[in-house]
# Entry
Amino acid sequence: MPDHAVARRRLSHTPNGRPTARPQVTLHPSTATIHAAIVAAALVATADGHVAPRERRSLLRLLRHHGVLARWGRSAPMALFDEAVRDTPDAAPLFAAVVGSPCADLVTQAATHVALADGVTWPQEIAIIDSIRDRLRTPAEPAR
# Structure
């Protein structure tokens, strides 16, 4: 199933106090997007030679924030993460499946969150994130 959006109407008020209906759009990432995001996180987590517990927790926080844990639970994404850490799958077809999708940004967010989680960002992690952005054709985040 591709990424899809759910629109809900929410009442708000205009400056003169009249109620107006505004659509609130919520994006739900597809299974392919979630799979690609978890694999991207695993690639970055293993770049420095070991997976820190903080990197796992960071991925879980991101997945919770995007509503993935509410739909999938915790064990399935973590099992997929552990498998990707162990076996290092070919990520190119996974990334190709989400190019141009509305939630493709979730893949680079997952990789970035994991890279920043342990407090040390290695050059290998940055190279992997750049490679993921290049594959997904997503722009680099602006410096803050």
Summary: The chain has one domain: 30-136. The chain has a mean pLDDT of 85. DSSP finds seven helices and two strands in the chain. The first helix runs from residue 31 to 45.
